[in-house]
Amino acid sequence: MAGTWKARASLIVLGIIFCGTLFAFAIAKEEAPKLGTVIVVDLGTTYSCVDVYNNGHIEIIWLIDGAAKNQAAVNPERTIFDVKRLIGRKFEDKEAQRDMKLVPYKIVNKDGKPYIQVQIPDDETKVFSPEEISAMILTKMKETAEAFLGKKIKDAVVTIPGEDFDQRVMEYFIKLIKKKHGKDISKDNRALGKLRRECERAKRALSSQHQVRVEIESLFDGTDFSEPLTRARFEELNNDLFRKTMGPIKKAMEDAGLEKNQIHEIVLVGGSTRIPKVQELLEDFFNGKEPNKGVNPN
C-alpha cells in the first residue's frame, strides 16, 4: 500500500506534520486545472478522516471519531490509541518510555521495539507493532474513500499527528495531584483515562475561552478533582512545541520551492489549528496573511 500512495511535488495541496495538526496549503491558482483527485489522509488522535481534494473543492469523509477512545475510561487495557507515537522508536527510547507511562494498554519489548499486547476473545493474547495497527486503520480509510469516490486511489498525502499538547497538560496535573494530595496516579490506568479525556476537552474549550475548570468525579480513591486551567498556562506548558511548528512549515515551503508571497490561501485542517496561539504564529509567519477558517478543521 505504501508503494502506491505517493506524495507529488506538483500538487496544489501540501500536507505537513504539525504536532497533531495537518496544514493543507492551497497554492498557485494557476496550478488548479492540472489537478485530478487527491486525498489527504488524517490519521488523527481525536478523529481520523479522509479529505478529498477534487478540482478545487475539498470534501471531508468522516470515518472514525472519538467514541472508541472514550472507552479508555471503562475498558483501558483493550482500548488502543495513539500508537503512531511509537512508530520508528526503540523500546528503550526515552520518548517511548515516557509515552508508555501515559497509556492504559500494555506495551511490551519485542526484538528491542515497542509492541502492543492485546487480549482478544477466548483469552488469547496477541502482540502487534505500531505499524501494523496504523496500517489496519489506513487500509480501512483507503477502502472507504474508494467506495465514496467509486474508483481506485493512487495518490495521497498522509499526516500523522499526535497528542503532545494534551500530554503536557496531563503531566502538569499529575504533578499537581501528587503535590496537593500526595497521590501518584501515573500507574492508575482508569484515572489516567479520565484525566486524558478531560484534558483534551479543556484544550478544546480554551480555543474559545480564557479559562476552564477541569472537573472529574472520583478520580482516585473516591476523591473528586477540580482545578482551573487558563489559556496562558496552557500556552506556557506548550510554548516550545508551538515554536517548533514553524520548522516543518519552513521545510515544506523550501521543498516545494515556494516563497511566502506565492501562497494563495492557507487552509487549516486538524483540531489543533483552532488553538489561538497556533493561528497567531501562522499569521506572523506569513507576514500577516490570515488563514482561511472556512473549512471544518476536524
UniProtKB/TrEMBL annotation:
Record localization: Endoplasmic reticulum lumen
GO molecular function: ATP binding; ATP-dependent protein folding chaperone
The UniProt record lists the keyword Nucleotide-binding: yes
Keywords of this entry: ATP-binding, Endoplasmic reticulum, Nucleotide-binding, Signal
Keyword Transmembrane: no
PROSITE patterns per the UniProt record, alphabetical: HSP70_1, HSP70_3
Pfam families the record matches: HSP70
Gene Ontology CC, one term: endoplasmic reticulum lumen
Gene3D superfamilies the UniProt entry points to: 3.30.420.40, Actin, Chain A, domain 4 (3.90.640.10)
Regions crossing the membrane: none
Family in the record: Belongs to the heat shock protein 70 family.
PANTHER family from the UniProt entry: HEAT SHOCK PROTEIN 70KDA
Name the record gives this protein: Uncharacterized protein
Taxonomic source organism: Nepenthes gracilis
